[in-house]
Amino acid sequence: xxxxxxxxxxxxxxxxxxxxxxxxxxxxxxxxxxxxxxxxxxxxxxxxxxxxxxxxxxxxxxxxxxxxxxxxxxxxxxxxxxxxxxxxxxxxxxxxxxxxxxxxxxxxxxxxxxxxxxxxxxxxxxxxxxxxxxxxxxxxxxxxxxxxxxxxxxxxxxxxxx
Length: 162
Prior knowledge:
- The protein is α+β, with helices and mostly antiparallel strands.
- It has three domains: 14-58, no CATH class; 77-111, no CATH class; 124-158, no CATH class.
- 23% of the residues lie in helices and 12% in strands.
- It contains four helices and five strands.
- The strands form two sheets. It has a three-stranded antiparallel beta sheet with strand order 3-4-5, with no helix packed on it. The chain has a two-stranded antiparallel ribbon with strand order 1-2.
- Strand 3 and strand 4 form a beta hairpin.
- The two termini are 54 Å apart.
């Protein structure tokens, strides 16, 4: 491989700064692991930097400090589409918009849970199984090549191969 003679030229108003976790400190961002990454092209007025890997560790998914609203409202699915919906606290909603002046005036809405029924799909092979068996029997009995071709085409059509 050829070595390139190009030099890295930094902006005169930039500098290298090590990550804030390269030394022990009592800041909020210290997570108990030393980091030796350097951030490139930082302005001279910048005093400290946290590298991308440290930020990824600090803001890991499931971090309780980042989760502000952990519990959602237990409203039924599609409650914003109801003409009128009253939750258990007495809040009244018309098409998803809360009506503050009606709070506590109506009884909570009774929602019936819809039981989902799983449909059993019949595949095309199961529907046409008897026809395919009959055609295969005819195929074994016949000697004529033209008839065999037509029977094979019909079998392929019924099994969705052709």
